[in-house]
Amino acid sequence: MFTRESEEVKLQKIMTKNWYAICVKPRHDAKVYLRLLEKNIECIFATYNSTRQWKDRKKKIALPLFPGYLFVKADLKSERVKILETDGVGRFIQFAKGPEKIPENEIEMIIKTQTCEKLDLKPIAFKNYEAGTKVTILDGPFEGYKGIIDTNLEGKRFIVKIDSLMQAFSINVENFLLKFEI
After folding, report:
1. Is the alpha carbon torsion for 111, 127, 157, 48 positive or negative?
2. Considering only CA atoms, which of 145, 55, 68 is closest in space to residue 106?
3. Is 116 exposed, middle or buried (0-12, 13-18, 19+ CB in 10 A)?
């Protein structure tokens, strides 16, 4: 009976955990990510690949997709202090009522960006894209996702907004099938 209760307690803990965004010190994203993992806190450090050129060579490096932000899945009642005490963590992103919960579908989308190499990710400033054409992606890791085509960027790019963070990034849409919305 003791093991059954502890399994139920574990299940309740998992069910009360939500995703939140935290601010970290500038250029400390990777270090804070590793520190949180050491504390057994589930977190996401979203990156994209960029080619950098020096005088003697070119090199592909991973850069933060959302500089200064990490995503943590936690039960704030029991893990909030543990997260905030982590060296390099500044605060939780919050609006009027406290830390802002990140919807599960937005987290799944961020995870998909990390597993697909053909996306050609580029971070961009969050804007209101009312002038663009609304589309739905019909194939690939973003299948079913609705967004906007912005032709002001180089070539045709698809704007992916993370509304809860007021952040956005763009992907090259040439590799995806699109359905235009009316």
Report:
1. negative
2. 145
3. middle
Whether residues 35 and 98 share a domain: the answer is yes
CA-wise closest residue to 11 among 99, 100, 75: 75
- Whether residue 25 contacts residue 168, with contact meaning beta carbons closer than 8 Å, is answered with no
> Of 81, 102, 123, which one is at a domain's C-terminal end?
102
C-alpha 84/C-alpha 81 separation (Å) is 5
Phi and psi torsions of 148, nearest 5°? -130, 140
Domain count, the chain: 2
73 and 138: one domain? no
pLDDT in tens, 12-51: 555 689 999 999 999 999 999 999 999 999 999 998 888 8
Indicate whether 45 and 57 sit together in one domain: yes
**Per-residue pLDDT tens over the stretch 49-106:** 888 888 898 888 888 888 899 999 999 999 999 999 999 999 999 887 889 999 898 8
